[in-house]
Amino acid sequence: MSTLTANARSGAPADAAAHTNGSPHAAATKKAADLLPDATLVKWLRDMFLIREFENRTAQAYQQAKIGGFCHLYIGQEALAVGTIAALEPDDPIVTAYRDHGHALARGMSPEACMAEMFGKSGGCAKGKGGSMHMFDKPHWLFGGHGIVGAQTPLGTGLAFAAKYEVEVLGHAVEGGPAKKKVSLAYLGDGALNQGALHEAMNLAGLYSLPVIYIVENNGYSMGTAIERGTTMAHDLRKKADAYGIRGEIIDGLDVVDLYNDFKPVVDWCREEQAPAFVDLKTYRYLGHSMSDPQKYRTKEEVEQYKAKDSIDRLASQLMDTSGPRAKANGGRPVLTEQAFMELQAEVKAAVARSLEFAESSPVPEASELYSDVFLNPMKNLSPMGEYVHGAKNPLL
Questions:
Q1: How many angstroms separate the Cα of 43 from the Cα of each of 39, 128, 326, 344?
Q2: Where are the domains positioned within the chain?
Q3: What is the pLDDT of the chain when averaged over all its residues?
Q4: Does the structure show a pLDDT above 80 at 11?
Q5: pLDDT: is 223 or 201 the higher one?
Q6: Is this model's pTM higher than 0.85 or not?
Q7: From the CB of residue 357, how many other CB atoms can be counted at a distance below 10 Å?
Q8: Fold observed for domain 33-363
Q9: Which pLDDT value is given to residue 139?
Q10: Cα-atom radius of gyration of the chain, to the nearest Å?
């Protein structure tokens, strides 16, 4: 295992001095988000509002029986997906669990491809064969949402192993070009903390020093069971990481700027040291575990308490603040005016409406689609019912 650097311990980005004219004092005071342009923070706001609007319209479509199967919404947790993915490079691989629409949109998937997949239509990201729990977008290095609790964590570990193997053994990327240091993100809910697959994966990550970050989306409830009733050391999940010699962190995920400031140094450290980390990321979902959840395990007062700290409202207020540090740097002008925020919301709502129209009009997959894109190298006569083939690529991806 690599030694944790002073920069990583303090939360300061390792390359801060390079962005502050080499001033040690400036490097000590600058946070990761301070180095970003205003436009990036506005994009975060748009991405979070896009996820919120998309999920609201998804809930409506589900209630209208246009979406079938299981459906797990991300409302309330938007800052987590947006803030963590913002800390990555575009070709860092990620894998997540079945509450995955937010990650797909934050990673760059088009709302049309995402909504059509929800509808089980051929225009979806998996051509209608995955549905709500299986968003997949290889061009954006999103290697799927996964329905089996904890099963994605070994995959995230394998993605980290593959990236490190390219650097240390092959000397080049499998798909061409030079190898580069990458970081893999493996998202999991707090209900997956006791799954054997996670502990086997963490053991290997610690043993081989793999650049994977296990992100626990800790919304306090494993389905309908409070976390302290279902796992040991719920008050300090870093103890899970200690057992495998992995760096452990606790991060507040309710404010996207604070989240980025705390998470970006962890990503930078994992990339540089090529070592694993485990992050207990505190968040909260406003709706139930799934669309069928009656939510009898928590009070309405508790939900309202968290809604009062809503991440979208918080960032919007920060960007429209005329007395904040960014406004002062702009001569007293806020990063975002109220009119601009209203226009942003209207634009996002129109984009989500178009995704619904696309999903409605997209065709239902042909029965023969069952045999396409199942195996990378299908053997001849593999099935007595039909031939496995490679289907056409989805133009939306």
A1: 6, 29, 16, 10
A2: 33-363
A3: 90
A4: no
A5: 201
A6: yes
A7: 12
A8: Rossmann fold (3.40.50)
A9: 94
A10: 21
Tokens of 188: 């999991």
- As given in the structure block, the two tokens for residue 170 are 């092959």
Q: Which two tokens stand for residue 108?
A: 């760059």
Token pair of 272 as six digits: 């540089």
Q: Which two tokens stand for residue 342?
A: 């209203």
